[in-house]
Amino acid sequence: MNKITEKLTEAQKYAMLVRPKVGGFPFVAEVLRQAGVQINRWSLPACQSVYLMKEGAVVQQGIPLVTGTHEIPKFDRDVLITAIRSDQEGRSSFSEFLMAAWNAGVVGYDVDLSARKVTYYGSSGEIYMEEYPAVEVKNK
After folding, report:
1. Which of 35, 90, 97, 136 is close enough to 22 for a disulfide, judged by CB 3.0 to 4.6 Å?
2. pTM
3. Edge-to-edge strand order for the sheet containing 48-53?
């Protein structure tokens, strides 16, 4: 690992320690923002995450949600909002949230850590955006 990847992975580890089970996403986002992450871009169903940081960019490749050839689900804003709320209320794991977002027709999403907003994208140009609250997280 180099300096920028170490910085990201250490921030991710710390974020998992300080985040509450309910409403934890803003805490994770704030820790990453303090570590220099400006944008976090997710591609589904590949589970590829790109972190655009002050010092450069880092990619993390997760376990894909599906493999092979699949029809992309139709974008369903209500199903997506249900998935988001379930995650916010601590009723789903992150991997369950990703699968629920995929099943809602999300092919990717961007987290703008400075503006505190998440924008979800469907395959036909659909967009759904939500802001998340500011939180205070002490530097470690």
Report:
1. 90
2. 0.94
3. 56-61, 48-53, 37-43, 106-112, 117-122, 127-131
Q: Which helix (H) or strand (E) holds 39?
A: strand 37-43
Can you state the angle between helices 94-103 and 77-88, rounded to 10 degrees? 170
Tokens linked to 96: 């369950």
> What are 3-60's pLDDT values in tens digits?
999 999 999 999 998 888 888 899 999 999 999 999 999 999 999 999 999 999 999 9
Q: Domains of the chain: which residue ranges? A: 3-131
Helix (H, G, I), strand (E, B) or coil at 124: coil
Q: Looking at domain 3-131, what is its CATH homologous superfamily? A: YdfO-like (3.30.1810.10)
